[in-house]
Automatic annotation (TrEMBL):
Keywords: DNA-binding, Transcription, Transcription regulation. GO terms for molecular function: DNA-binding transcription factor activity; transcription cis-regulatory region binding. SUPFAM superfamilies: Homeodomain-like (SSF46689), Tetracyclin repressor-like, C-terminal domain (SSF48498). This is TetR/AcrR family transcriptional regulator. The keyword Signal does not apply. Residues 36-55 bind DNA. InterPro entries: Homeodomain-like_sf, HTH-type_TetR-like_transc_reg, HTH_TetR, MT1864/Rv1816-like_C, Tet_transcr_reg_TetR-rel_C_sf. The lineage of its organism: Bacteria, Bacillati, Actinomycetota, Actinomycetes, Pseudonocardiales. Residues 13-73 form the HTH tetR-type domain.
Length: 210
């Protein structure tokens, strides 16, 4: 199935980015409730008809925003330091970049992974495309440290689900009032240490090594 995401010519990219930046700002500042065509148009200083013209409506705008969010994640993963002789350390750097991305904008992360917009279901072809271009970063790093005969794709999936679980729980905990006698202190540093410990435990359990 073709995506609902509307393609544009290169000359339109600047205007398109302006609307997507506005949509990301609305999502961060006002949450999902503010993510309407009118809200995005107002933030971009444009009319609602302009948004409809460029994206075909709310679903087209959400598709484009969904795709843009994954573009930003991929850029962050690609921005980690160049590969070193320590493949495990390099993999851990990518995992840390993933957590930083999630913490930078929980609302954006929710749009990507948590179905936070209850009536929005990204087009399957669009989902397949963003997954293929983003999670290849994990597969590439894992390929360097996978034992012979072990599927790097399987390892990447298991590692990502662990990372996603840790991040999702952290976001939930940090959005709520702290309770006494919880497993760890309610600080970013404590959560960061637990995340690193969990990722390393999964790496070890998968038998990944330099």
């Amino acid at each position: 199935m073709a995506t609902r995401h509307l393609s544009t010519q290169p000359a339109e990219q600047h205007h398109r980015r302006r609307f997507l930046d506005a949509a990301l700002a609305v999502l961060t500042d006002r949450g999902v409730a503010g993510l309407t065509v009118r809200g995005v148009a107002e933030r971009a200083g444009a009319s609602t008809i302009t948004v409809y013209t460029r994206f075909g409506g709310r679903v087209g705008l959400l598709d484009a925003l969904y795709e843009r969010a994954f573009d930003l994640l991929r850029e962050d993963l690609q921005a980690v330091p160049p590969e070193t002789d320590d493949g495990i350390a390099d993999l851990l750097e990518v995992a840390q970049a993933y957590r930083r991305f999630a913490m930078a904008s929980p609302a954006r992360y929710g749009l990507m992974f948590e179905r936070s917009v209850h009536d929005y279901d990204p087009d399957p072809a669009l989902r397949a495309g963003v997954v293929a271009t983003t999670f290849v970063e994990f597969v590439t790093k894992i390929n360097r440290v996978s034992p012979p005969g072990v599927s790097a794709r399987d390892c990447a999936y298991l590692l990502w689900t662990s990372m996603h679980g840790l991040v999702s729980v952290e976001l939930t905990i940090r959005s709520q009032s702290h309770i006494e006698d919880w497993f760890l202190d309610p600080t970013a540093e404590a959560h960061g240490r637990m995340y690193r410990h969990g990722v390393l435990a999964m790496i070890t359990g998968l038998g990944l090594r330099n």
